[in-house]
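Field notebook, page 502. I keep forgetting to write these up properly, so this time I am using the form the group agreed on. The chain and the ligand, beta-D-fructofuranose, are recorded exactly as supplied. Prediction of the bound pose follows.
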Amino acid sequence: MTSETLQKARDFEAHYGPLIPPEERPAFHATPTIGWMNDPNGFSCYKGEYHLFYQYHPYSNEWGPMHWGHLKTKDFLRWERLPAAIAPDEIYDASGCFSGGALELPDGRQLLMYTGVRRERTPEGLLQDRQTQCIAIGDGVDYEKLDTNPVLAENDLPEGGSAIDFRDPKIWQEADGSYRAVIGNRCPDESGAILLYRSDDAITWTYEATLDASHRQYGLMWECPDFFELDGTQVLFTSPQDMTPIGLEFHAGNGVVCLLGDYNGNTKAFTRRRVQAVDYGIDFYAMQTLLTPDGRRVMIAWMQNWNTVGAKPHGFRWCGQMALPRELHIRDGRLIQTPVRELEQHRGRPVIHHHIPVSGEINLPGVQGRIVDMTIDIEPIGRDSYRCFRLHVAKNGECVTTIRYRPDQSTMKIDRSRSGLHHDIVHTRTFFVRPRDGALRLRVILDRFSVEVFVNDGEQAASAVLYTPLEADAISFEADGTVMMNVEKYDLIFEEEDKAQE
Ligand code: FRU
């Protein structure tokens, strides 16, 4: 039965969603049907298609009582809109259906596990959230919440665990048919931990272990965990809140952290060996992964975070987008991320410039646009041939976003302070890169309202939303000194784009 709350959301999005013209959205990044989007939820394969749910408040461009919006795709690029999946319509989730996961059951139904939030007044008169894990089961469009919800509550926490911050279950099925969930929690020291739960039927869950904890080193609450094996390494992802900066690797506030290590399935012990940031740009949070039938581990994330939500499209009826899904690997003990390979099928109108010496600022014929896939190789001409290289995108007389590389420091800086946003929020981020003999490769993806940079074939990634007017479509290259450059630039072509240009 569709509740009144869910029906209202479905009617609202069905009425207003189609009024948004396609050119007011990115060409291939996922956006909400209408209103607000934050975290990806339930990113998983169901009946041969990839489903993506998302934290959704259809009625405004602000966060509000959380519903789950729903999209599906065959290629991670073209998203089909489905009606909102669940709404906050039960006592145990009246304050919101927070983030969670999804999987296909052996009987062909789709199971969603999410955090139900209920706001209560404490005996001291304070308002406090209670968070429990709940299940809804359906056919890929309509879902019924279990009568037995919540399936995990305060009593299922390890000693000292917090019932206030107990959220974001990510669920999967193991090869032996049993199920696992990782869930974010808080320890008595107020900082985050990731709990592991097990189930034989995906309905009844029991606590197994605490996989890792922040101990106040990597932020406070650990949100949105994910846990999987990748190229022989065990990966634990989390999105911490309230990080303290650590060098140029982690900035203050909401971060994204990748813990690499080993996992012993018998003792349930995760041994952390290395920690790195996942995205070095401005807008990236709450990532989730899935495993494709052809064995690829693909990650998606909310291309924003709680500290940068002031970066909003002005006058639009939607707010929030997902990052371009990335294929993950481990190389030399580090996380490698590359845009999903499906993107290459949309490359058209190639423009290739080889061996271009750059000294001062130059434009190149055919190199402009806001829906672009461009690879740039830069190489010094002898020792100390240049002090700085800058790539300018989304540029006109007024606006520009700059990606700057300084070989003397091995730093890259992404700067969108003049991208047309009128809010004084974080607009720059600097990070270390690893040049090879002074050479660097950048792959830059533009999709109207964002830029995503992949350094050295995916060694590092940096994302930022750009709500720059679309007329600002110039691209230029600049060097202090002289640098040798190769550029390979494609327009990314989708059917809708072609129609719009006819
Ligand atoms: C992460 C998060 C989650 C929570 C959701 C609420 O961005 O704070 O922990 O489930 O957003 O919308």
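OBSERVATIONS:
- The helical segments are 4-16, 495-501.
- The chain has a mean pLDDT of 96.
FOLLOW-UP: compare against the apo run.
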